[in-house]
Amino acid sequence: MPHSAQSGLRRPLLARAISALTLGAMVAATPLPALARPLPAKNVTVRADATGPAKRVQSGASAHAMVAAANPLAVAAGMRVLKAGGSAVDAAVAIQAVLGLVEPQSSGLGGGSFMVFYDAKTRKVSAYDGRETAPAGANPRQFLHPDGTPMTYAEAVTGGQSSGIPGAIAMLDMAQKEHGKLPWKILFGPARQLATEGFIVSPRLAGMITSRAPQAHMADAQAYFRNADGTQMKAGDRLINKAYADSLDLIAANRSAGLLSGPLAEAILQRIHTGPAPSPMTLADMAAYKPRKTEALCRPYRAYIICTPQAPSGGLPVQEAMGILAHTDINKRSAKDEKGWYLLSQASRLAYADRDKYEGDPAFVPVPTDGLLAPDYLAKRAALIGEQAQPVTYGVPAGAPKVGPDHTLEPGGTSHIVIVDADGNALSMTTTVESIFGNGHMVGGFFMNNQLTDSSFAPDNADGTPAANAVAPGKRPRSSMAPTIVLDKATGHFAAATGSPGGTAIVGYVVKALVGILDWKMSPQDAVALPNLVAMGNKYSADKFPDDITQALAARGEVLDTQRGENSGLQAIVYQPKGTAGIRYIGGADPRREGIARGF
């Protein structure tokens, strides 16, 4: 039976605002019928029952443009925008709107994002930071009990104070003003149609609904994911979310101000001000939010240039790990060679150790980016990789500040998008509400983020030295999100794009994909499907590897632990300069999730 989501928002208030805007009429009147009705992408079958999705082809090839994202409905929306003449950023707006509806456990209107964008005309890469910020009333000790002990994660994540000011829509607003080709208001048509007519609950969403995550058991999620007969939704059920369509109408009419001010902002505050650990966020905090645009963080790697966002993203440790690997012979090895996996994991360990020590919001703490990526420092870190795994700790790069130890927990409820448009512009975007269903507070048909729990729960050391990633008013928490674009060093032309969800493991996932594509010369589909090996400290979290590799790594001191957290959800697109049959782009999507790559 259809179900309408009204949790956390009084529909009469919102309905009056929308009636005045007549957004439904504007969307219906669009001259681009291709945007009116999103359907599953061609050649994709999604089985509408609880037994799981039918086998689908996840990779794709195209001559003109391509999209890879975490859900076929989102890919279909992006493809419709591109075929209607839209830009990569236009497509990203439509895809994000759909993802927030069909996989609300991962991203949405109430979350944040990082994006890197390649301009085909200038061959320059820009970075956009839509990370959530702490409100003015945030306190470095807000995740501590009165006795000074840190809250449990479950305590912290379900409080309203875990929410930062949402930034994903504001970031897309900024980028679309600069790089969009279609009217902003029509980009929400596919998501609006799905919200009002309903979509089929996928097996992955169904699994999240029944997960042990505390947010899934909160009142808002329990009410939303119920059929009209009171039964809990399962894969194959149709979910209607008219409140989400109302929220999209406000954003379509008013751009990001429709979320960060007015009736929707008031409803957000009403919801996160209630319950234990309420948020101190105000309307002034929301109205004052500004996304950041910077030059991308770009560094050479063999015949390529790798570009990521700046700190506080996960781009910095990805760059450091790849810089360390440049001093090894991993490019002469393959995925069948245990030494290649050993080198990859050891470089990751070293980069994670530095990230955990030094990285925070550069507007608040001095992040020694140049020192961490200096050639001599990278060479010294690479020299620490011996034949046997040894304990690792942070190094002391040039410009290293004195900061305390880090106590950040970073589970993941995140998604990734890669797009290349018909003009050759490309983007890579990682987007999140942080944990599964954010903090469990639902407003206007979407969940609010719990992004401030990405900050260090313990804000300082016993001697008072502050952690680089401690909470502070207006501060962005450190992130592992690392959307990546790769250029050909000789020409400056787009070569590849990739990225992944996965919480703190994102850095390891992205490094694996880059090594697979750039060093081991694998197709994007084969590269993203490779087993994962994420090494932090003395823990080696891994998928199932062949026995010979598992045993060889164990002999080097790497005992693989297959009891892991969030899986990867890598997407990747690679450019073929001499493609056969007119094929210029090859895409891949992680088989661990429901994503696909499609183009035209």
Structure notes:
This protein is of the alpha+beta class and 600 residues long. It folds into two domains: 305 residues, no CATH class; 233 residues, Glutamine Phosphoribosylpyrophosphate, subunit 1, domain 1 (4-Layer Sandwich), CATH 3.60.20.
Q: Strands, helices and their partners?
A:
Blueprint: H1 11-21, H2 23-28, E1 60-62, E2 66-69, H3 72-83, H4 88-102, E3 112-119, E4 124-130, H5 153-157, H6 168-179, H7 189-197, E5 199-200, H8 203-209, H9 219-224, E6 238-239, H10 242-254, H11 257-260, H12 262-272, H13 283-287, E7 292-295, E8 297-301, E9 304-308, H14 315-325, H15 338-358, H16 369-372, H17 375-383, E10 413-420, E11 426-434, E12 442-443, E13 446-447, E14 484-488, E15 494-499, H18 506-519, H19 524-529, E16 533-536, E17 539-542, H20 547-555, E18 560-561, E19 571-575, E20 585-589, E21 596-599
Helix pairs in contact: 1-10, 3-4, 4-6, 4-7, 7-10, 14-15, 14-17, 14-18, 15-18, 15-20
